[in-house]
Structures are given as C-alpha cells and as structure tokens.
Amino acid sequence: MAILEIVKHPSPILTAPCKEVTVFDEELGTLLDDMHETMIENDGVGLAAPQIGKSIRVAIVDFDEEQDIIEMINPVVTATGGSEVDVEGCLSFPGLFGEVERPFHVRIEAQERDGSLYELEAEGYEARAILHEIDHLNGILFDSKIQRIVDPSEFEEEGDE
After folding, report:
1. Mind listing the UniProt keywords for this protein, alphabetically (predicted)?
2. I need a surface site. Which of 37, 117, 127, 128 has the fewest CB within 10 A?
C-alpha cells in the first residue's frame, strides 16, 4: 500500500464532477487500499478520489476499529431527513474548520469494490461524513457551505470543560 499526496484547494480537480466507475478490477481495489492508508496517515475520517488526483466516483469513510470501512463507488443519495449544524474540516483545506448544515439522516446506494450494489443508512456524524465525501465527487467543497468559520482553539476549550 502507498501513502498518496493529498490535493489541496484551489486545485481545479476538486471542483470538477467525477466520472462514473465502470471497471471493477484489482487496480480499483489497490486504489481503495491506498486511499485508506492515506486517510489514516493524515488523521482523516473520509477521503474522496479527487483529493488524491483521480476524477472518479470513489470515496471512503472510516470512523474507528469497531466499524468496517465504508467504500462508496458511484454513490447516489436516495433519501435525507432532518437537519443539523456541526463543525467540519477537510484534508484538502488544512487548518480550515467551519460550521456546516447537513441532513441528520441519509440513505445511499453505492457499489462495493467488486461492483455489487448495496444500500446504507446513516445518522449524525456518520451521515455528515458520507455526505461530505459525496459532495467531493460532485465537485462541491465544504468551504462553500460554511456558515461560520471555527478557530481550532475553540476545540481545545471544549475539551478543557
């Protein structure tokens, strides 16, 4: 596995809609494994292919060891519900954090690395991360959704309480 370079804003690949994946092969599996290694190395919870220079509809989300890695190939949002504002960051925007409003609940359809279809429902932080990564695949960046920029020192204060 390899650690890949994270593409930083304002690279044009980050704002271009990605192409659908049509070939499910060993190369795709290697890409997913490399994306996971890269995300872990950079302390992320999600990573989309354009963030490593590939304009294809592939993204991953991984919260902790207790859950499986969510690999989303050609994901489509089929339902959303509720609304919640919370702080987000992005590996392509080092040091930028902001409050973003997103649906509290999401249902998606996507494909596994072997091409098989699956459905997934998520709520709260998990839904937020999934929607953030799907936005990347559509060329939408979180900075366009920020309601209020959050200084990193605000996180430290919360932890001190």
Report:
1. Hydrolase, Iron, Metal-binding, Protein biosynthesis
2. 117
Closest CA to 120 of 84, 75, 63: 75
* Residues placed in the known binding site for Fe cation: 90, 132, 136
Which residues fall within 8 angstroms of residue 54, CB to CB, at 6 or more apart?
31
pLDDT digits (tens, 9 = 90+) for 101-133: 999 999 999 999 999 999 999 999 999 999 999
Strand 58-61 to strand 117-123: parallel, antiparallel, or no bridges (unpaired)? unpaired
Q: What is the pTM of this model?
A: 0.94
Give catalytic residues, as residue numbers: 133
Query: Candidates 3.90.45.10, 3.40.1280.10, 1.10.630.10, 3.40.47.10; correct CATH number of 12-155?
Result: 3.90.45.10
From residue 26, how far is each of 6, 29, 31 by CA, in Å?
22, 5, 9
| Residue 137 confidence (pLDDT) | 98
Annotated binding site, which residues?
90, 132, 136
